[in-house]
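Why show two proteins at once? Because comparison is the fastest way to build intuition. When a single record is shown, students tend to memorize it. When two are placed side by side, the eye starts asking what differs. So, the first record is below.
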Amino acid sequence: MILVVDVSIAIKWLVAEPGDKLAGALLLNFPATRAPDFVAVEVGNVLWKKVRRAELSVHQAEQALASLPQFFDELFPARRLVGRALQISLEIDHPIYDCLYLACAEENSAKLATVDTRLMNKCANTPFAHYVVFVDRAIDPASLI
């Protein structure tokens, strides 16, 4: 079973923050995790913000970003997904950045794990709703398999 994760989950694999244990449990329950390669850019941006807020040192941020690829079986080139992501973005009226993850999930016939409530709400009552799984304390990661 393949699981696509967005930046809201990937960052929790790298730094201590609310929900990191549950995000970590996803790794134990899914033999294959994927994302668009753009996830590295988004994770880098979150790490930059955490350094600016003095939540992490520069060294910690650099180490976290360097370790990111080990959590994925495959990172898909965003250029391969961007056309479909634009179509999805226009259909659900949501930023293309998040729709890259939806396009990746669609291409892999996979679920997209997220804690992004805006994305979840935008996908509700659309053909994309079945791809998105909101990861919160009420969900058992094993139930996604």
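Second record. Ask yourself what differs from the first in the token line.
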Amino acid sequence: MSAGAARKPPSTALVLIGAIGGPLVFVGLFVWLMNGFAAYEALASGFVREVAAGRYEAAYGRMASPYRASVPLERFRASLSHNAWFRGATSVDINRTGSNSGGTSTSGTMQRPGGAVGVRFHFVEEGDVERITNVVIGGASAVPSPAEAP
């Protein structure tokens, strides 16, 4: 190409592909990420609603089997029945996930009558189902620790 030669403008097809394809890729990526959060939000929201309603057995059933083997239902129930963080909790909004050794950690906010509070849930996959291993609210563990003696 000589210094004086004009550049050929991009074809209309390429411009259309870029104009339509770019946003579609972005939307697809956004939907994919939100769907990844949706499963964790559903599990976490169900857990906090069950605890708020006093359905401790149902909430306990969402915990991982090693957790349930280490923390008896009665201890779980006694601890959560006195935990004010869960009173009136309605949902969890997840805004970040990350992998850790053998599981997934999520961060977000738990919606409650007194306002939203920061929450982290830790999950592990058991078969084809995600189960909870720990819940941290306001920087402190909100469920009894298996490491603590009863």
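One difference worth noting in the second protein: Helices lie at 12-52, 56-61, 65-70, 73-81.
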